[in-house]
Every structure is written in C-alpha cells, then in structure tokens.
Amino acid sequence: MIVIWIFICFVAYKVTNVIEFYFLGALVGIVMGGIQSLFRSTYAKLIPENSVDHASYFSFYDVSEKIAIVIGTFSFGILLDITGSMRMSALAMAVYFFAGLLFIARIKNFKSQKM
To answer: In Å, how far from its chain's centre is CA 114?
Structure first.
C-alpha cells in the first residue's frame, strides 16, 4: 500500500490536466480506505500478546497519527511557500512515505527475529 502511495505522489507531480486529476482523485479514494484498515490491523498484530490494556496502544497510534498529519501539512505548506509549486510538496510526501516504508520493513524484520 505504501508503494502505491509513493506512486500516487509521483503521479500527482506529473498531473497536467483535469482528466488526470480526476483519475488521481479516484485512485486516492480507492487506496485511502484500504490503507487505513490495513494499518490498524497490522498495528494490532504488533501489540504484545500478553498486554492487558490494548486501548493505550491504540491511543498512542491515534496521537502519532495526528502528529504526522500536522507535520505533513506543515511541510507541504512550507515547501509550497518556498517553491511556489505543489509539485515539489507531492514529491516530499513521497519521501515521507518511503521513510515510512523503511521503518515498517525494519519493524517487520525485528518482529520475525524475536520469534
């Protein structure tokens, strides 16, 4: 899913007309719901099995999600202000998604090594 989001960011960089924009909007709509549910279920699998309080883990997830929204929106706006183009902001979002992909791959490897 993250690879698809990286692809979407590159497509957003290349959009030049209305038809491409509508295609991009449809693609975002298709992917957004799937990635939300996929990440929640993946996160639930990472919670220790002997944990009694799952709510605190999901509270941390929700807070970190809100912080990521603020950081992403802020950096999008800063890049827009500096460059005068949303295209560079879309590429910056691709960098964020790539960093997230590396982070998640590291967690997956860490989890499989402990088993």
So the answer is: 26
> Helices marked H in the chain — which ranges?
2-14, 18-46, 54-83, 86-114
Backbone angles phi, psi at 68, to 5 degrees: -65, -35
Write out pLDDT tens, residues 92-103: 889 988 998 898
In 10 A of CB 13, how many CB atoms? 16
Burial of 91 (0-12, 13-18, 19+ CB in 10 A): middle
pTM listed for this prediction: 0.74
Query: Rounded distance, CA 95 to CA 42, Å?
Result: 22
CA angle 84, 65, 81 (to 5 degrees): 10
Helices assigned H by DSSP within 47-85: 54-83
